[in-house]
Amino acid sequence: MSELYDVNVGEQLPKLATGILGFDDIAAGGLPQGRATLLTGSSGSCKTLFSVQFLYESITLFDEGAVFITLEETPAEIMKNVKSFGWDLRKLVDSNKLAFVDASPEPGESTSVVGEYDFSALLARIEHAAKRVNATRVAIDSLSAIFSQFSDSRHVRSELFRVTAGLKKMGLTSIITAERSDEYGDISRYGVEEFVSDNVIVLRNVAEAERRRRTVEVLKFRGAGHQKGEYPFTLTGNGIEVLPLSALELTMPSSEVRLSAGNPDLDRMCGGGFFRDSIIMASGATGTGKTLLVTTYLNDGCMKGERTLVYAFEESRDQLLRNARGWGMDFSRWEKEGLLKIVCAYPEIRSLPDHLLSMKAEIEEFKPNRIAIDSLSAMERVSVGKSFSEFVIGITSFIKHKETAGLFTVVPSSMHSVTSVSESHISSLTDSIILLRYVELMGQMRRGLTVLKMRGSAHEKEIREFTINDKGMHIGDQFHNVGGILTGAPMHIISGESDKLSGMFQK
Amino acid sequence: MGYILKLYITGQTVNSVRAMENLKEICSGLAKDYELRIIDILKDPQLAEDDKIIATPTLVKELPPPLRKIIGDLSNTEKVLLGLDLVHKKEK
């Protein structure tokens, strides 16, 4: 996997794991060890939280002491702010694991400058604190505050350069935060990057379509590899969690085991059923039978004693149970037996990255053999920018990694169209695609079904007619004398013409 | 009530030495009694914590209130007096 990175693994500088969930994946191991890394972001981009988490994990995960140099907030404020994550910094301070170097401005205090000065005092205090708690990691938050105290920013820059050089000399791995005014502009105010330019991480908090999207980007690690681009992160009960989506490797195990969709005809059309670790997309307009497909697929799993998990983003639990009952399937029983778990939620209740996290947690906990999402299009409704495709990549890779089959339904944007935005996003990520379509024929609405794609297996290419009654879905014969079903404009081909057409290919 | 002054330095650097010399000169002209403590942060880093010292030299006027700080080698006597709210004999 070295080709993903800037340089060969052999030449890489050693990295220090941060313990921040997902971050070490995109940072290819962590922060460059013994170096200073600049962490920039606009106000409210979680710079302080990132720094505190870096130190907190250092102590709790790796049992290595840490020093927090605060130039902005008081230690008391910081301790209070991170309490909600269950981080008891006071305890760490008392047990000599964490040390604060408090250089926050005293409110109402006036400081004037007369003559030459340097920042040896700050460095001496850091060194003292680092020795006291046996620190390997430090964070300075935030440099911008120091610039507002001193008018001669050139002198301050060169002094800060000495401080960072001093940290390096002590062998400390450090995060230095700095404010930036624009999300996509200069790296930081006051040209801070000039003296900690080796490694830069950018945190962003961008408003898109009335929603906030937080991302982290490793801009550069000199002499060390990392993933490129912005990765979404979100705040959980445990602090920052980065979603390392495309950093996931495509090394999921591939299974030959097939699952039944609960419908023998459909299984036959798919060449024997769905693969156990595959993602199946069922695309169809409203009322074409997507939910029935999902219900049958889940019911088949439950009947075989498999654990199944369904996300219903458009229907309530009661509706789902009632529908299943209507088709002769007893979902309440499966629920009682612990084989079926129904999660109903409006997509609007949280952002997509948060949905992804909670779904991962549920899957991790319930350990289902089959998962269904009905429908994925509902999630698209609440997505902004790239967040939908990131969500789809995130959930598909996670599900496949668990060797679980996932059936996702999507609604095309118009009644007849072949593609919708979601389909174009996810069709390449799915292993199988089943199309359900309305076919208007001679004044009647009929339904057609076809297997468009079945990765790694032969499948039927016919478009078959199907009907739905109180026993479920019944797949019948191929449509005869009709063309253009998938284009949304079916055309009846008169018999004489169809004979002629078939005759054209006979020798 | 006299003045209580603290001068924070880091070892015998050029700035530290210059600040000590300048301060001696300034203090000799003060209208009131004064108590001066010189604190070397390299020797006693813990002492710098309470006053949140980041730059040296820093002169702190602890008493009488309000607390005032001046950063630098104190090379301009008038600015120091003004900044710390100190009174010189001749101004009396």
Quick structural gist:
The complex is a heterodimer of chains A (507) and B (92). With 507 residues, chain A is α/β, with parallel strands linked by helices.
DSSP strand tally of chain A = 25
Strand order of the largest sheet of chain B: 2-1-3-4
**CATH topology descriptor of chain B:** Glutaredoxin
Determine the fraction of residues in helical runs of chain B and give it as a percent range: 25-40%
Rg of chain A, rounded, reads: 29 Å
Biggest sheet details of chain B:
4 strands, mixed
End-to-end gap of chain A: 52 Å
Globular, elongated, flat, extended or rod-shaped: what is the shape of chain B? globular
Can you count the beta strands of chain B?
Answer: 4
Per the principal axes of the C-alpha atoms, what is the gross shape of chain A? elongated
**Alpha-beta content class of chain A:** alpha/beta
CATH architecture level-2 label of the largest domain in chain A: 3-Layer(aba) Sandwich
* Biggest sheet layout of chain A: 9 strands, mixed
What portion of the residues of chain A fall into strands of 2 or more residues? 25-35%
- As residue ranges, the low-confidence spans of chain A are 1-10
Radius of gyration of chain B: 12 Å
The tally of helices of chain A reads: 16
Oligomer: heterodimer
Write down the overall mean pLDDT of chain B: 87
